[in-house]
Design brief:
By secondary structure, this protein is mostly helical. It has one helix at about 1-40.
Length: about 40
């Protein structure tokens, strides 16, 4: 029984890490897009 709980905790932690990584990637890509737009406008 405790093995299942342990697996669930690992899964929840893993998905949380993926979500935070995706958010960081999205934030970085938005900054890159903004910089590109500034370059194009010049």
């Amino acid at each position: 029984m405790w093995m299942i709980i342990l697996l669930l905790i690992i899964l929840i932690g893993f998905t949380g890490n993926i979500v935070s990584l995706l958010r960081a990637q999205k934030h970085a890509s938005q900054r890159i897009i903004e910089l590109l737009e500034k370059q194009i406008r010049k």
